[in-house]
Specification:
This protein is an alpha+beta fold. It has helices at residues 8-35, 182-188; strands spanning 39-43, 49-50, 55-61, 70-73, 76-82, 85-90, 94-102, 105-115, 121-123, 130-132, 144-146, 157-166, 171-176, 196-205, 213-214, 218-222.
């Protein structure tokens, strides 16, 4: 007895059914590609965002003009610079979502980590402490706060510090801002060999910081 699969009509019908299913799958897949074009979001400087500074990004959506794309960020601000370029500003740490949208297209979400700018290192001239000549301070007027190897231009502003000279009679002077005040300068002019100069309670502030942060102290010994 012949099986139903042995009839030519059944084989023709099966081939037709498989061909139809294949064409429908290809059609559906092509429609999906058209409705969800490739979206790219690239951080121009770093692979994460930092609080209080401009975080530039470039956004592109395949087949969609830049002026038809809408970019938003949860708990953040987006500045449209034109031609697919944006600045992102964020106020809190954690993980944030950049959402990219266009009319008739499902939105695309990209996650970024957000961190505080790391603590800088306090310096006088190019040193952060150690044995120095008495003449070293003759040309130094201030304390600076520097981020070593930091790829952005924003600067930390020193808001104040205490200077203590440990000699025969210890003297402490509190300074406002980054520059030595008149009292500090007059004391540095008369320091002697083996005197120790301490700089502590150094406070600085970066964009986005709610308050000044305390950074490393420095100790210099005169020789």
């Amino acid at each position: 007895m012949k099986k139903i699969t042995d009839f030519p009509q059944f084989k023709s019908f099966s081939l037709l059914l498989l061909s139809t299913l294949f064409l429908l799958t290809v059609f559906a897949f092509s429609r999906t590609l058209k409705s969800t074009p490739t979206v790219s979001v690239a951080a121009d400087k770093m692979n994460l965002f930092y609080i209080g500074i401009d975080n530039p990004i470039t956004v592109a959506m395949a087949g969609v003009p830049a002026d038809k794309i809408k970019v938003s960020c949860e708990n953040g601000e987006i500045e449209d610079l034109g031609n697919g370029h944006y600045n992102v500003r964020i106020k809190t740490v954690g993980k944030k979502i950049i959402k990219v949208e266009a009319d008739g297209i499902a939105p695309k979400e990209i996650e970024y980590r957000v961190k505080r700018i790391p603590d800088p290192m306090s310096k006088i001239g190019f040193l952060s402490g150690g044995a120095v000549s008495i003449g070293y301070f003759e040309h130094q007027k201030k304390i600076s706060a520097q981020l070593i190897g930091w790829p952005i231009e924003e600067k930390c502003v020193v808001q104040g510090f205490a200077m203590t000279i440990q000699g025969s009679d210890p003297v402490e002077v509190v300074n406002e801002g980054e520059y030595f005040n008149a009292t500090s300068l007059s004391l540095l002019e008369v320091i002697k060999s083996n005197d120790v100069v301490y700089f502590d309670n150094i406070k600085c502030k970066y964009p986005g910081d709610p308050a000044a942060r305390k950074i490393n102290a420095m100790v210099f010994k005169m020789r």
